[in-house]
Amino acid sequence: MESKPEKPEFQCQRPSDRVVAIQFSGAWLIDAAIPDFQTLREALGDPAQTDTLTFNATRLTGWDSKFLAFLLKIHQYCQKQNIVVEDEGLPDGVRRMLHLATAVPERQGARREAARESLLVRAGRMAESSWQAVVSGLVFTGEVTASFIRTITGRTRFPWRDFGVLLQNCGSQALPIISLISILVGLILAFVGAVQLKMFGAQIFVANLVGLAMAREMGAMMAAIIMAGRTGAAFAAQLGTMQVNEEIDALVTMGISPTDYLVLPRMLALVLMLPLLCLYANLMGILGGVIVGTGLLDLPLKQYLVQTQAAVGLGDFLVGVVKSAIFGVIVAMAGCMRGMQCGRSAMAVGAAATSAVVTAIVYIIVADAVITVICDIIGV
Description:
With 380 residues, the protein is an alpha/beta fold. Helix content is 68%, strand content 9%. α7 packs antiparallel against α9 and α7 packs antiparallel against α12.
């Protein structure tokens, strides 16, 4: 049967007037309840009456890192009180570890202090980070533009096989989620309009509401937001993972431009596919309005379609397509730029994907507002 380790204890003695000797006993192990350091400070008495501190470890039966941490607290306390510590009475292993721990003093300023910054300093930091974000965005835009010029002038090899896969990922594979969201948006628009228009007996104008809303605004916006969460985040995660695995560094080492080989194909694929997805979203949204108009409002299908055709012109669809192309540039730029700026850790990859989605959605809303105002000014 194993004997229980002795309880860790200490005793303070004064062999002379200005000297204090600490005698340790028991097993000072990590799972033991060692005495509190405040108790030792009280036992030492007035530090002004002590010049030297010595140790006696003849009764010490065991020690580990917990004992060393306790001794380090004693050293730090004695250093502040200008008390000389003599460690000859400690075991050789403890003395060597203490010498290693106290050989290099703590560098001034190495420890972070929680200093509260003023409002002006925080505002300056925000302004500086915003300016750096603008500059990095302009630099990235210039690199992509230069890559596009090199590609169309035949000065670089374009990865056509990868481009075909990207077209499929950005196009046909996104049709199910686009179909679901667009039909639901059309249903919601038609239902909300029907509740109001039914009071005036103008249910037929639900076709105008759904058709115009989907063609000019909701089709392009919903398709862009879906692609920002689906494809923009995927671009950021893919390029960020390549950064972590140093694959992009390998391309640079081999003399291959990452912008030409990785960024430009993704941007072109999304810019080409998003207008087509916008037209498909318009069709699905109008189909949702048809379901409400014919099922809830008892409108004839032919009458509903004729009303939609009369309300929505080719120019309305063209506005939505132009918006979707611009949104495609925004989503692709956000995803690829955040991926290329990703750090070298798994957490950085997740942060890049999140930042890509947030950046894309914010700029999509801003761009939509600007384009809407411009269309109103020029009368489109």
